[in-house]
Specification:
357 residues; alpha/beta; Nucleotidyltransferase, domain 5; 5-stranded mixed sheet; 40% helix; binds 5'-O-[(R)-(carboxyoxy)(hydroxy)phosphoryl]adenosine; binds zinc ion
Length: 357
């Protein structure tokens, strides 16, 4: 019997230090043997956001025992690992360098192949860890740094259909939370507060809702929320604003997802209509509920990673590593850390003042 590949994945692009070992069963379905994630929330809380220098130091302090723990928990011996996959970008360069160098060193010492992984491709493939997923599919990435609709033709073949022209959705959640006096990272807290509020209390703007195809914009929301927070006096008003903000995001995504479906079908003409949603914000249950409804209306199959694999983790990095290992797509040990690494390298940059839609 052929030995099934054992892949070590390492992630350190932002404020999570993570390592994971995955393999696959006899049917070729991935199996997560270990998945260790160490969050730095406590390090950055008092600064209201991620401080790159502190994040890098924390990765350096933890990386070896996190990798060691992932190996111990998996029950395999380090010599049995067939390849090492590390995130090489996009992200904070001082943070990326830690996991990338560590992964290269492990690969070198074991004399095994090294695979440089795009963190966003990790999110794109994360649902494969618990469900069957065939190419092509439409992918909505909603994280702290990115908000994009992409058609995914094959491994590493992405075409961007729409992107945010300013803030990412996770960033909008975190900024709104900050304005409401909630500690960083506030995104998950907004979901909790919204449960106690009236979603129709405040009427917030929906920037570029009627133009720009499935491109997105959230910066105008922050300005509107800033004005309202200055007048807010009670906790109930806070809950109402959180609920109204979340409702507005949901309405924007509802409309833009329908546009993305049309664009995807025009471009790909898919036999199966699969819609993958991943990234930190995909953990939001109300957003999930709405996206499942849009899929029902338009005959799409909604596919999400499990909630615990929506945020940054190394199992998704190992998942990309596994696919690339099977295709023998290896990288050299001088592969650079890439702070900017779009999935669709051909797509034009659409951020900043003066963007024409
Ligand atoms: O994918 P991720 O862990 O890191 C990046 O690669 O950016 O996403 C983190 C983002 C943060 O902005 C966080 O506030 C947001 O995802 N987030 C949420 C929820 N859980 C995490 N936003 C809204 N609702 C949630 N339940
Ligand atoms: Zn991420």
């Amino acid at each position: 019997m052929n030995k099934k590949p054992l892949i070590l994945g390492i992630e350190s692009s932002c404020d999570e230090t993570a390592a994971s070992i995955i393999t696959e069963n006899s049917q070729g379905n991935p199996i997560v043997l270990s998945n260790i994630v160490s969050s730095q929330v406590d390090v950055h809380k008092k600064f209201g956001g991620v401080v790159p220098e502190l994040a890098a130091r924390s990765h350096l302090e933890k990386i070896d025992w996190i990798v060691q723990k992932a190996i111990e928990d998996s029950g395999v011996k380090i010599e049995e690992i067939d390849a090492v996959a590390s995130t090489a970008g996009p992200g904070l360069i001082v943070c990326l360098s830690v996991g990338l160098s560590f992964g290269k060193a492990v690969a070198l010492s074991l004399n095994k192949p090294f695979i440089a992984v795009n963190h966003l491709e990790g999110h794109a493939l994360s649902p494969k860890l618990n469900s069957e997923l065939n190419y092509p599919y439409l992918f909505l990435l909603i994280s702290g740094g990115h908000s994009q609709y992409l058609s995914v033709k094959n491994l590493s073949e992405y075409k961007r259909l729409g992107t945010t022209i300013d803030d990412a959705i996770g960033e909008a959640f975190d900024k709104t939370a900050k304005l409401l006096g909630i500690e960083f990272p506030g995104g998950p807290q907004i979901e909790i507060l919204a449960k106690k509020g009236d979603p129709n209390k405040y009427n917030l703007p929906k920037p570029i809702i009627n133009k720009g195809g499935c491109n997105l914009s959230f910066a105008g929301l922050k300005t509107a929320i800033l004005k309202i927070t200055k007048k807010i006096k009670t906790d109930q008003e806070k809950f109402d604003l959180a609920a109204s903000f979340q409702r507005t995001i949901i309405e924007i995504l509802y409309k833009k997802t329908k546009i993305a479906f049309v664009d995807f079908e025009k471009q790909i003409k898919p036999k199966e209509k699969n819609f993958v949603v991943a990234g930190g914000v995909a953990a939001n249950k109300e957003i999930r509920k709405m996206l499942i409804n849009v899929c029902k209306e338009e005959n799409y199959q909604p596919i999400f990673p499990p909630i615990e694999l929506c945020g940054d983790n190394a199992a998704m990095i190992a998942m990309v590593g596994l696919e690339k290992f099977k295709l023998k797509q290896f990288d050299k040990l001088d592969h650079p850390a890439k702070p900017r690494w779009p999935l669709d390298e051909g797509a034009i940059f659409l951020k900043g003042a003066g963007v024409k839609l």
